[in-house]
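Can anyone check this?
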Amino acid sequence: MILNGIMSTGDRDLPFVPVMFTFDFMTLDLQPGQKLARGVARYLRSLGYASLEEFVPIRGLRVDVMALGPKGEIWVIECKSSRADFQTDSKWQGYLEWGDRYFWAVDMEFPTDLLPDGTGLIIADSYDAEIIRMPDEEKLAAARRRKLTLKFARDTARRLQSLRDP
């Protein structure tokens, strides 16, 4: 029992010291696409972007990485770990309308000639990434930008809270 900052154990009273929940995310066994997403998120952070993995803008769509920039810009990044992963993705064109810029994130061995023109290219690994080709900007409508930004913030807050209070 805790009373006035003192935890009573029956035999003795101890000062209550809150314990922070810690978790070593580096020890997780990540899939190849998740490793790319981690490297992309690290790189985006160095550019001043906040990112969220597996973001769902609307039911039926799940973006690998959504990034929110310092000026409110929204980028969508799809991580592809292999030719087969890319060729079986039939939903990617549906993601174009959910960001100002659309990127593919792939590793060094990926055959980049498969990727459509007009889309961005990020080369990534588990630890970092680099933009190789910047796509043209297609500005989101103000109402959609506001809705996405709010959903991004709420989803991020929920995920953070669930780490502390699962």
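Reply from J.R.: I decoded it. The longest helix spans residues 142-164.
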